[in-house]
Amino acid sequence: MARFLLRRCLLTLPVLFFVSLIVFTLIALVPGDPARIMLGEEASPEALQALRREMGLDQPVVVRYLRWLEHIGRGDFGRSLRDRRPVLETLLQKLPVTLELAAASLLVAWAIAIPAGILAAWRQRTVVDYAATTVALAGISIPNFWLGIMLIYLLAVNLRWLPPSGYVEPWVDLGRNLRLMVMPSIVLGTGLAALVMRVLRSSMLEVLGADYVRTARAKGLGERLVVGRHALRNALIPVVTIMGLQLGGLLGGAVITETIFAVPGIGRLVVEAILTRDYPMVQGAVLFVALGVVVTNLLVDLGYAWLDPRIRYEAGP
Amino acid sequence: MQEPRAAISLAPGALRRRAAEGGRVPAGLGALSRRFARNRLALAGLVVLAAVVAAALLAPWLAPAPPFRTDFNNLLRPPGPGHPLGTDDLGRDLLSRVIFGARTSLAAGVISVGIAVAAGLPLGLLAGYYGGRLDDLLMRLTDAMLSFPLLVLALAVAAVLGAGLEKAMVAIGIVFMPGVIRLARGQVLSEREQQYVEAARATGASDARILWRHILPNVLSPLLVHASLSTAAAITAEAALSFLGLGTQPPTPSWGSMLNVAQAYLGTAPWMAFWPGLAIFCTVLALNLVGDGLREALDPRLR
Predict the structure, then answer these.
(1) A105-124 exposure pattern, b = at least 16 Cβ within 10 A, e = fewer
(2) A135 CA to chain B: closest CA distance, Å?
(3) Do A290 and A23 contact (CB within 8 A), yes or no?
(4) Residue A143: its chain B contacts at CB < 8 A?
(5) Cβ–Cβ of B155/A149 closer than 8 Å?
(6) What is the C-alpha separation between B109 and B286, in angstroms, rounded?
(7) pLDDT of residue A315
(8) Which of B156, B277, B285 is nearest residue A146 as measured by Cβ atoms?
(9) Sorting pLDDT into bands at 50, 70 and 90, what band is B35?
(10) What is the tens place of the pLDDT at every residue in B235-246?
């Protein structure tokens, strides 16, 4: 057990290394002199020189990378060019907003996907199954920015049921917070619901064909108990396995959703930072998001080893 | 990962020998298209896709007006005679812009996936065939790339390259590369140990010949499925980048940037947002249906 855990943790190190390398290289590749891009054409040579020194641009690339890595290790993600505040501080301040949106969307997604996936597999090759799989494919195909705009038009502009966009902290006004979260979480949850439903349907089909399900049926258990208790538990494993994938999808989708609905989270921060060429913020936010996915994947795998004793012995590279 | 051989095993003997000689199985293609044609949803997807491709190719003849022609006497007109889908904030005919937008979207989808395949396929083949350090390096690198949410990485690359359709294509192509590398590598790993590869090696075939003539053909069919599904995702990604202002720049007609502009007129001219979004949805759905249909046709056990 301990050996597996250690091994799995060690395997994360090269991934982290490459993640950091990609993020660093991306910003290092920005064409032209970053200092000049940031300060503009009419900047004085002294100011340029000062910023170059501050950013370490007078050093060789390798030194710059190592120094940057060392700063990241100390929790120093640099400072935003727009408001000069530490990048990490802004990220941590925006994180709860994105987490709330992600949690709400995950809830929407699972509330739709789990019943639909079970039904589709249980009633395989019936109208129910075809309807569910087709709707799921439509859910994967619908662009979330269009879905968002159309929902705003229908529910906010036309019917006036919900406020069109914005954000209020839950401790300020919980009712308004929830009303503002309805549309973003539907938009962000739709694509995910479709993905989870497809995964659950196929794993459920596999489990329903397994011997232990036949045994459960043979000993006279009701269909509800067989499917709901015996089959579902194992069929949900792949759904949990793709948590990292789901989180990645949520964070990617949050970029769009937060922009449309003016939700001040990390997704919108990324877009604003890119549009205003706030490179330290882009670098910090992208790294932060990727680290979130890597850590989630690690936790899922570790949680797995904890729950399922077979995995420790089978663990391959 | 047995998809391509599923077709071969239907007719042992002659076909198997043929597969060992050239890897290509002509008879498999007939069976494949018959299985594909039996899937009504996939066929519907193919029809829609053909219509979109035709619209893109014949845009100058199909569109009722040039996509750039402004008409300040007809701003924000609702759908009606003269303008079947209405006009936009500059009085441009929306139907014409949606038709011309098909060119942008299809080009973006095909070219960015083309970039991903052109760069990813050779890397994946080499990594799978030779293994070792190159393989280790590429796998950790793809692990790392896959840790970034697709759109976040595409945005970051686009931020470095700058705005514009060509740059968006490159950005999306880079983001889709790890998927292709993984797929090709996995396929090579399972083919490498097959007897026909051993036989080819025994006859003195070079590594390059084995990879090109024997292994590559077996990678192509799963790659085709992957490419059609990736094209759907790439079209969405390009539209998303343009929607955020980082992809296609105005006045070039692109579904994503049309939606971006439409947001400001949601209260007065909702049709401006409806049509380009519907066009993206239908095109992406059609590609996904075709991709799923191909996958099921290649692996009948799936349904």
Answers:
(1) bbebbbebbbebbbbbbbeb
(2) 11
(3) yes
(4) 236, 239-240, 277, 280-281, 284
(5) no
(6) 13
(7) 43
(8) B277
(9) confident
(10) 999 999 999 988
Which residue in B150, B239, B266 is closest to A252 by CB distance?
Answer: B150
Which residues from chain A sit within 8 angstroms of residue B263, using beta carbons?
A: 149, 260
Closest partner CB to B140 (pick from A14, A141, A270)? A14
- The model's pLDDT over B247-263, given as tens digits with 9 standing for 90+, comes to 888 888 899 999 999 99
The string of pLDDT tens digits covering residues B36-57 is 888 888 999 999 999 999 999 9
Chain B: give the shortest CA distance to residue A291, in Å.
Answer: 8
Nearest residue of A to residue B230, measured between CA atoms: A141
The vertex-A241 CA angle with A99 and B126, nearest 5°, equals 110
Decide: A256 and B151 in contact? Cβ < 8 Å.
yes
Nearest to A15 among B147, B281, B285 (CB): B147
What band does A311 get if pLDDT is binned at 50, 70 and 90?
low
Where residue A150 falls among pLDDT bands split at 50, 70, 90?
A: very high
Task: Find, in chain A, the residue whose alpha carbon is nearest to that of B278.
Answer: A146
pTM above the 0.90 mark?
A: no
Q: Tell me A86's DSSP state.
A: B
Residue that wins the pLDDT comparison between B288 and A6: B288
Q: Do A152 and B266 touch (CB under 8 A)?
A: yes
Q: What is the mean pLDDT of chain B?
A: 85
**A18/B144 touch (CB, cutoff 8 Å), yes or no:** yes
Average pLDDT over residues B139-165: 89
